[in-house]
Structure formats: structure tokens, C-alpha cells
Amino acid sequence: MTKPPHSQKPKAQKSGDTKPSVGKICGAAALIAGAMVGAGLLAMPARTFNAGMGPSTASLTFIAIYLAATGVLLVECAYRNVSGPGANILTLVDNTLGPNGRKVAWVLYLLIYAPTLTAYIAEGGIILARAFSIAAGQTADYFPPEPFEIGFAATFAGLILGGAELVDKMNRIAVLLALSAFAAVALPAAKQVSGEKLERADWTYVPESAGVLVVAMSFHNTVPSVAKYLGHFHAATQAVVLGVAVPYVMYVVWEGLILGAVGPEDRAGDNSTLTTEIILELLAKEDGEIVALAIEAFSFLAIVTSILGVGLGTVDFLDEGLFGEVSTPDDAASMPLPRAIPAPADVSRTTAASPARSQTFGCVTVHDAHRRHWSVAIAFVPALAIALVMPSIFIPALEFSVGSRLVLFGIFPTAMVWKLRHSPVAIASAASEMRGGSIALVAVGGTTVVLLCHEVLARATSML
Fold first, then answer.
1. Per-residue pLDDT tens for 295-304?
2. CA proximity to 312, closest of 161, 415, 136
3. Is the pTM of this model over 0.85?
């Protein structure tokens, strides 16, 4: 098919007729922030301790800006894509990078989020079991975690089944409570901060923290859900930036409080590194009981906000990946979509007008009314089963997921946006483009390649 002449190129289209309310944008930002603020926040200073405050802050700033940029690129993919912002990452990849890219995206996504959901369910059950044991006046390990893992998984599977609106409301409450608990942990630590300890710095340790920060601060599987929920490019971009900014401030504050209160003399031995247990023990020196309760509360609420964001993104991913896109009149009325340039025959398959009423997988028939239930079950049941039987098997997978995240959420968005900006069938709109043009796009892609090469070399070295 010949490329349409320049004179026939349509005018820029807006991503939506009406910008969502500030409250709705903040709710979407809270979903992103919740995915970034996991229980790993408390342990982060133990991983960046050797570098010191200055280098750690520089590393945090660099990774936060990089992740925000890749998140905005995903938003641009959603609004430039012929399928519009209702599409999930599989369709975005398929429409731009083809069926082989879609297959790679499937594998990478499962490698990242199957262990992540398993870890959240296992940790949530352990925290609940410990809390109920202590509340009953028994030792912390009195109740087994398995029943609580089942209840935890069932509760959040039910919430996610209720849809994005319900998840948004519950997540806002959880984020506010998590911020309150974080303040209760941080205030006692502020009393012990020393300027001399904050000045300690060793820049040679900066590279080793980059991969850890990428895993701890990733939020990208929530972006397609946020784009669909808001239905407006600038609103979704603002949600990404705000959603990254709040956790970034929390990470920097926490790093300052801990690295300013803990010195090399507080490590367990001459050659040992700082551990999370040592950090929490030192914090509990003053107001110990209050700090201990706040730490437990924050750890649990961080798991709650994380599983809401990650769970919603994973279910949306499976829903579209297994059963295809669906478009209803209600969706069209509630979320105006931009008009795309008519697609040629080879891409029209991605914009089917009316899905089938049911689909058959072997001996199982799934009706459209039940597809969401199946997606939730496929996301949560295997994760729960593994959490019950052998939860530790996925810990190495989490540690090795840095490369997968960099490819799926760094390489792929850069390649997709580059292709969409030069494609005659993409939505032609400068209003739906990340600022900085091609220079910013090349910078993001180059940064991803550097981080990926470093990660591959680090993993190869560790295996020798």
C-alpha cells in the first residue's frame, strides 16, 4: 500500500474530549505510586548503604526520571496506536512490532509478574499470620500463614474483579494509610540523623544499585490500565509523573533518615553488609513499640497497594491476551477515543468491531460475561498455589527480572514509539507525544541499552 501524500495527512486529534477530574487523575497516580512503594522500600538502604547518601540520591533521581520517561512512552503508545487507549501492552506490541514481538512480550511479562504476585501473596499471608498471632497473645509464629495467604489472595482477587473504579477507591485509602504509617516510622529515625554520616560517599558502588532500583520502582504494567481508565493523554501523563514523584520523595527521605542514622560501625561484622533487621532494630531503640507497629502496618499496606496495582495490570493483560480486545457501547460513551487514520488490511485484524459471544479453549467454553472471572482466576490461583507449596522458588526469579523489565518496559516502548511516529497508520497527533522529540527518544533507548548491558555483565560475572 502506498503512503498517503503529505497534503492528505489528517489534523492532530485530541486524546479525549474532556479531561478527567483532578481527583480521578490523583487516583490513577496513587495506583502507580502504590505499585512503586512496596515493602522493599524499608530494605532499600541496606542495598545502597555502601554508596552513601549523595551517590544513592543521584542513583534514585536518575532511575526515577528514566522510569517516568519510559512510562510516558507507554502512554504515547496507547494513544498513538490504532486501537486507542483501551488496548493493553500485547495489542500495542502486536500492532507495532508484529506477532513475534507479541510472543516475546508474553514471555517477558510472565517472567516478571508471575513471581511478583506470588511474592505479594506469600508476604501478605505471613504478615497477617504474625499480626493475628501477636493479637491472640501468642508467639509470632503461632498461626500458620497458609490460611491467611488464601484469604489474602481471595480478598484482592475479588476487589480486582470489581474493576478499576473499585480498585482506585480502595487504593487511595491504602496509600493514605501507608503514608501515615511511613511517617510514624520515619519521625523517630529523624532524631538519630548525623550530618557526618550523611557526608559519607563512595561512588564506585552506584552501578550495583541500579538494577535493584529498577525492580523496586517498576510500575509499567499499570500504565495501560491507567490510560484506559483516564481516556486522556495529558491526564495519563500527569498521572505517571505524579505517581513517580511521590514514591521518589519517600525513597529519598527514607534513604536520608537511615543512612544519616546508621554508620559502618553498626554492621554485624567487619566484612558484612547492613541488613534490614539491623536497620529496624536500631529504629526501635526509641519508641520501640510504636515503631514496631508502624513498621508492620506499613509493610502490610505497601503489599496491599502493590498487589492492587500489579494485580489489576496483570488481569487486564491476561483478559486481552487470552480473549482479545472487547469494545462495548458503554465504553465508547464513557471514554471518547481519538480517531485513527484508516488502517491497511494487514493491521485491521487488531480492531475487530464485535467480539464473539463465547470462545472455546479445548473442552472449556468461556462466555464474554465470564472472561474477567477467568482472567482473575488464571492470575491468582497459580500464584496462590506456588505461594502455599514453595514460595521461595520465585525469589531468584525476582532478582533476575531486571533484564526482562528493561526489555519489556524500556526497549519495547522506545521501538514502538519510534515506529508509530513514522507510521502512516498511527494516530497523527503532536498532542499525544512525549516532549523532547527524537532526542529524548534516543536518550531513553540509549539509557536502556547501557543499563541492560551492565545487568547482563553483572549476572555473567556473578555466575563465574
1. 888 889 989 9
2. 161
3. no
